[in-house]
Amino acid sequence: MGSLPLDLPMKPLDPHAIAGDSQAILDFLAEYYRDVDKFPVRAADMEPGRVRKLLPEAAPEHGEPMEHILEDVRRDILPGLTHWQSPRFFAFFPMNASSAGLAGEMLSVGLNVVPFVWAASPAAAELESVVVDWMARLFGLPRRFLFSGGGGGVLQGSTCEAVVCTLAAARDGALGRLGHEAIARLVVYASDQTHATFQKGARLVGIPPSNFRVIKTSAASGYGLTAEAVRAAVDRDVGLGLVPLYLCATVGTTGLGAVDPVREIGEEARRHGMWVHLDAAYAGSAAICPEFQDYLDGAELADSVSMNPHKWFLTNMDCCCLWVARPRDLISALSTDPEYLKNVGAEDGGAGTPAAVDYKDWQISMTRRFRAIKLWVILRRYGAAGMRAHIRRHVAAAKWFEQRVAADERFEVVAPRRFSLVCFRLAPRSGRDDDDDDTNHVNRDLLAAVNASGRAFMTHFVVDGKFVIRLAVGGASTELQHVMEVWDLLQAIAAEVLHRHSTIQRNEL
Amino acid sequence: MGSLPLDLPMKPLDPHAIAGDSQAILDFLAEYYRDVDKFPVRAADMEPGRVRKLLPEAAPEHGEPMEHILEDVRRDILPGLTHWQSPRFFAFFPMNASSAGLAGEMLSVGLNVVPFVWAASPAAAELESVVVDWMARLFGLPRRFLFSGGGGGVLQGSTCEAVVCTLAAARDGALGRLGHEAIARLVVYASDQTHATFQKGARLVGIPPSNFRVIKTSAASGYGLTAEAVRAAVDRDVGLGLVPLYLCATVGTTGLGAVDPVREIGEEARRHGMWVHLDAAYAGSAAICPEFQDYLDGAELADSVSMNPHKWFLTNMDCCCLWVARPRDLISALSTDPEYLKNVGAEDGGAGTPAAVDYKDWQISMTRRFRAIKLWVILRRYGAAGMRAHIRRHVAAAKWFEQRVAADERFEVVAPRRFSLVCFRLAPRSGRDDDDDDTNHVNRDLLAAVNASGRAFMTHFVVDGKFVIRLAVGGASTELQHVMEVWDLLQAIAAEVLHRHSTIQRNEL
């Protein structure tokens, strides 16, 4: 190896170079996954600037062997990472990886074709439209989201991209009728449990931030929206001369895993001609199991649906499925037609026929990766049965944990578990509900101590003033055993924390 | 292998599963790159729907061995791909791949961490800020775009994302002063050579499409903008009560590789307080060579700069560097602060200090991949010297081709070559410039025949009514030999096409 001699022409795609560099990474990754359970889950060294100080100020002048680079990854980078693929990662939502996901991504990155228009790699564009149809069928989505049903899907990088695209489509539909000045009167609706991505997206497409409505939810509806609450908010805005544009319904909210009743609020939104987006970023994966498909009831009232295979569907980053009922709306808002794209084949390719999709007009960017082959490899490698088994073992593990929490009088379950997310806390010690400050303090300490142990990583949420600990089960290598161990860990640390707090309280008396 | 038994728990991250699935892909890719030159460069079978017909309507119920899947890739997918990594791919712009790029992406996808906030993987966030600083130094960007100079950079997926983010930042700055209703008065300026991504981006962020100004360029300025033309357009809009918001300056336009004079038009834009974005998506890579850095003269007048390592910098898809002079402007437009992100470490992480960047506030999406490690591996593996050699061999090959075209009286060079893109055509046969219909017809036939041969793939552009053929040199494995061969091919096919056209003309007389 050694540094590349300057007088030797580089052969960056030489099969031997590919084999050599890639093999070094494969060996590294095999070692990483053998050891990942030994790392503290959350980055142990949290000093800002630590990694920056370790690295030189400028890029090297000469090339280096891959082995040197990987030594630096081991020494400088790994200790500063939070290990999202640890089986003890229960924070945020899972971000799955798998051998098939890595393999599929290697194929995508290795072939490195760019299916931005159909003609630029027909098989890649068609594989994408096939794979999103497969996904829609697996989740039991209504026919209107299949290409054969007049709709269709696209693979994007994130929910936020999907939200921006659908918001732009809804907005341009409204502005087409009302004129551009009406942009200041358009209103977007979400709940106080909806992901912040919708607020960000609405602002990005030019909706005034003051026209983003956050509708309050409560324990009574399991923190889901109700038709009454939506109606009240919309009626108020209509009375003010504003224009209801877009409603987000979430199946499986980020904080608590709550579910908005899609049919109920969808009907309400329809009455006002609003665009309804169904966000099932995390929980959508569960719909591969028939026992979870009821949560998508009413999906035929939605104009668009999205879910992220990169969360709980064994798909390495990144991959978001977006389906729309009327592709034309999306394309009207997002298409461009410059001369340098009017190339051989683009004309004869029959754009407009369902078989020849120019996906650049279904997304924000012109450029795009061949994500379809990744998702296709995963579905082929594991099959629908394998994916259902993957989902069900996590749901079962979460259920086990929820039962333990409910059975331990020191703890309480704060919101109903619907999928694989359990929201719990140490219960108020006085038995009253109104000593939240104290209870929150104890729970904050509990979570901090668990995370500091390095043996698990969880994150929190706040609802009705309560600090809630979230156990999000779903890591690709997380099994029941890991959930059992985290329950042991929680009990042990809870005992210490409760003891410490009791001592402080006694001393304060 | 065989299908996964349902009663056996899946181990999707088992080191043996990773090794097995990945090795199959590595073997496949080694074979692919050994053979890539044998495939027709452009997909041979252009029948829409061909691939869709080959694939089943639904995902398989049971998993399959990777070998079966790869057999299907060989049989059903490869013949329908355009081979962007063929050394004979001269279309659009190059989209580089390399052994180090694949290795870096494998690391990124294999570790699969999500540095959306600093605390979610500190080393990943810090490596990103180090790597964008390295890149800025390599390209000789002004200090104001370095973190140490008060600015900073981020890795995104595409120029369009970078454009949307900077447009949103500029827009929100203006609306903060003028009120939201003023959105209908904001104007964005570009040239008739600017990438369509700016028009799409401006529309996405809510600028009225009628407020996107396309300023005409001409051969006299090498198809670059002039300060006079910008001034005239801006003065007209100011006179109408509109608000000049944003100007795009391009170094290396998509159609012709033209260069806008950044200093000249930057000064003009500054006079009106406009945001100036410098788009060097393709040609920015050349600035790693000192002899090309002059094209970036005036960059200190820009508010933001972007370039795409995934084009000509040996970086597999996707990677776009965006630098801004005032991160605060970007963060103001793009930040969100929901409770579920206020997690352990996020508070103590010292957000706001340059060392602890929450990159979710520097981009459209919340989620993000660990792209930094890919670019870092590439810079380490090849070194600055290696990258300069990579750029220079393509520039030399393009120069060689340009000289041949200029020396052959049947051909002409249509626009000056600045980097590695040569724009040429068969010259008007009458010697007059005004028989463009005939000349365009001949050139269309020439390009179609070259592409149909499968031995090269080029695309076209139209400027001043002329149909121009573009030879974009820059493929990772493209060497002088391939450019020589495409010149031979062009000469041979040109002789046939010219003969055929002469015969038709004679028959028509």
From TrEMBL, chains A, B:
The keyword Calcium does not apply. Coiled coil: none annotated. One of its GO terms (biological process) is amino acid metabolic process. Keywords: Decarboxylase, Lyase, Pyridoxal phosphate. Its cofactor is pyridoxal 5'-phosphate. It comes from the Eukaryota. InterPro entries: Aromatic_deC, PyrdxlP-dep_de-COase, PyrdxlP-dep_Trfase, PyrdxlP-dep_Trfase_major, PyrdxlP-dep_Trfase_small. One of its GO terms (molecular function) is pyridoxal phosphate binding. Pfam families: Pyridoxal_deC. The modification N6-(pyridoxal phosphate)lysine is found at K311. One of its GO terms (cellular component) is cytoplasm. PANTHER family: GROUP II PYRIDOXAL-5-PHOSPHATE DECARBOXYLASE (PTHR11999), OS10G0400500 PROTEIN (PTHR11999:SF148). Belongs to the group II decarboxylase family. This is Tyrosine decarboxylase. It comes from Sorghum bicolor (Sorghum).
